[in-house]
Write a structure and sequence with these properties.
The structure holds 2 protein chains of 2 kinds.
Chain A (H helix, E strand, L loop, with lengths): L23 E12 L2 E12 L3 E5 L6 H8 L7 E6 L2 E2 L5 H7 L1 E4 L11 H10 L4 H14 L15 H14 L4 E5 L7 H15 L3 E5 L3 H7 L2 E6 L2 E7 H6 L1 H8 L7
Parallel strand pairs in A: 3-8, 3-9, 6-7, 7-8
Antiparallel strand pairs in A: 1-2, 1-4, 4-5, 9-10
Helix pairs in contact in A: 3-4, 3-5
Chain B lengths: L9 H18 L2 H26 L7 H17 L4 H25 L4 H20 L7 E2 L2 E2 L16 H24 L1 H11 L1 H5 L5 H27 L9 H14 L5 H19 L5 H15 L4 H11 L6
Antiparallel strand pairs in B: 1-2
The chains are: A alpha/beta, B mainly alpha.
């Protein structure tokens, strides 16, 4: 594992994720997705303020990943609209949504196994920047993520946590206004989770974030407002404290056991 | 499949190849020069497939179709008293447009990779049937009589002398490989490699993968069309056999044997397989197809990556560094 640590200044910027006080960046109205007769997401009204960091939680099959796939254009919604940064992006293809400023890391790591770490960042940045500036962005990200020693390695040869960082780094290279992260710390060791938290706080200074996570420790470290999905609907939206105290949430999501890893 | 990056040694290799191509005709008999010329034309065809399949992961069985269309375009324009140069250009355009149309339907229709392989094969076989049923002299384009399964003969050559024609074909192959290698290392080539590895990821970064795939597929078809026009010029004939199942599979076999993804492998594969076919034919064995079949099976089993990648890995395992 590499030795660099995320910038310490990140910890001073927690206020950026204080709550949905800013102007609306993303809004969904009545968003629904059916797969045949299965209702994966039903009538979701969701709003995210500019600069916010929001966590989505919910049991498996609650519709979180489907929600993400609709936001990023990977799945067309059955009904409802998605408004992003003042424009209607409902049903737009993924590449156009990406150009408008939404970056995503899917649940299953999706990287290019035969390409190097450097190439990942370069290609991500080169969409909007010329070759020289894209190379500079790639170098900067290699340092920031502590992957400089692995720059020329094929991503297929990296450890799971490193692959996750590569994918997070790509969303950063995109210079998105909103980054969607589906389980960014899955498979990471505790120290790696802590580094990821620091990294994401740093990202959140300039970018809004929505993060799907199961790791309660991670969420309590990072989240302001938490949105709970259950059976394709939003169950509750509140601070982590209130969510954990909510008896309905405890029943549907956490079961009888206490929260924790 | 690691992308091969350009090393400092590669221009030296190019220089060596250029010298060999330049002096080779002086060391060979006229017959051999003519023979190697057609091998090099097949190398062009193999490299064209490697550009779409090896680089961008687009497996097409239609390379023979683009090749054949290029050959017919050349023959038809020549028969209508166009200059061989113009006819050659028409061959390039025919291959490129055909690939562009097929690619547009496949990529913009979001059809799967399997669909691309099957469709290109079916289109090739349809062309075999269609051109095969043009035996009646009423099937003609201008002064060009298509001739059914007998095909078209007496096609004028681009360059009647064997040695200048060899140099032209060799020079084109050289240019194709050098510019193809530069393309692979350029940002556009890296995006294509990324599409091969995970197309969705490329789209989620804001790239229009469809356009990239269409561009490389049409380019690949245009090069196959060029090879077809050169082939018609080389032998002075073309017939619908170029659209046969055997021909379609042959191109894929060349690239499989040589190893895909580097362009060099495809050229080496085409050259060796064709030289072997030629040799087996010349010693009069009736088992050419059998031997080639056994060769292919053993390659798939023993060296699934093909000759060149296996050879390079062997070098690096005994301590000679790649890159």
């Amino acid at each position: 594992m590499s030795d660099a640590s995320a910038p310490s200044s990140a910890f001073q910027n927690c206020t950026a994720s204080a709550g949905p006080a800013g102007k609306t960046l993303l809004e969904t109205r009545g968003l629904s997705k059916n797969f045949g007769g299965v209702k994966a997401v039903t009538d979701v009204d969701f709003r995210l303020g500019r600069g916010e960091l929001r966590c989505l939680i919910g049991p498996n099959g609650a519709g979180k990943s489907t929600f993400f796939k609709m936001l990023s254009g990977q799945l067309p919604p059955t009904a409802g609209t998605i408004l992003f940064d003042g424009s209607d992006i409902t049903g737009e293809p993924p590449h156009r949504i990406a150009r408008l400023g939404i970056g995503i890391k899917n649940q299953v790591p999706s990287v290019w196994d035969g390409l190097s770490v450097y190439e990942h960042f370069f290609i991500a940045a080169h969409r909007r920047l010329g070759a020289r500036r894209a190379a500079a962005v790639a170098d900067e990200l290699l340092m920031k993520l502590g992957l400089a020693t692995l720059a020329r390695r094929d991503v297929g040869a990296l450890a799971h946590g490193e692959r996750q960082w590569v994918e997070i780094g790509m969303t950063m290279a995109q210079d998105a206004k909103l980054i969607l992260l589906d389980e960014p710390t899955a498979g990471m060791a505790t120290d790696e989770v802590e580094r990821t938290v620091a990294l994401l706080r740093d990202v959140n200074v300039s970018t809004s974030l929505i993060i799907v996570e199961h790791d309660m420790q991670f969420i309590s470290m990072i989240a302001g407002i938490v949105t709970v999905f259950h059976q394709g609907r939003i169950l509750i939206e509140a601070t982590m404290e209130n969510v954990l105290a909510n008896p309905v949430v405890r029943e549907v999501y956490l079961g009888a056991g206490r929260p924790g890893r | 499949m690691a992308p091969v990056r350009l090393s400092a040694l590669e221009p030296l290799l190019w220089g060596a190849c250029a010298v060999v191509l330049a002096v080779l005709p002086f060391a060979l008999s006229t017959f051999q020069v003519v023979q190697i010329t057609v091998f090099l034309i097949f190398c062009l065809l193999a490299v064209s497939l490697d550009l779409s399949w090896g680089l961008a992961g687009l497996l097409s069985f239609g390379q023979a179709a683009f090749f054949g269309l290029g050959g017919y375009a050349y023959a038809i324009l020549c028969a209508n008293d166009e200059t061989p140069g113009a006819a050659l250009a028409a061959g390039i355009v025919a291959g490129g447009v055909a690939a562009g149309l097929l690619g547009y339907i496949a990529f913009y229709g979001r059809l799967s990779a399997m669909f691309l392989a099957v469709t290109t094969l079916v289109v090739t076989l349809i062309l075999l049937q269609v051109l095969g049923s043009t035996a009646d002299p009423s099937y003609h384009i201008g002064a060009a009589v298509l001739g059914g399964y007998n095909g078209m003969t007496n096609i004028p050559s681009l360059l009647p002398e064997p040695t200048p024609f060899f140099w032209t074909v060799g020079g084109l192959l050289f240019l194709l490989i050098v510019s193809g290698r530069l393309l692979m290392a350029a940002p556009f080539g890296r995006v294509l490699a990324a599409i091969r590895e995970n197309e969705r990821r490329v789209e989620l970064l804001g790239y229009d993968a469809r356009w990239h795939k269409l561009a490389i597929f049409a380019l690949s078809g245009a090069i196959a069309g060029l090879a077809g026009a050169l082939f018609a010029s080389w032998g002075g004939f073309i017939n619908p056999e170029v659209f046969s199942l055997a021909q379609s599979a042959q191109v894929v076999i060349w690239v499989l044997v040589g190893g895909r993804g580097s362009l060099y492998g495809a050229a080496i594969g085409a050259f060796l397989v064709q030289a072997m076919t030629q040799y087996l034919g010349s010693i009069g064995t009736a088992y050419t197809t059998l031997v080639l079949g056994a060769l292919l099976v053993s390659f798939v089993l023993v060296m699934p990556n093909g000759l060149l990648p296996t050879f390079l890995r062997g070098l690096s395992s005994i301590g000679i560094r790649q890159r």
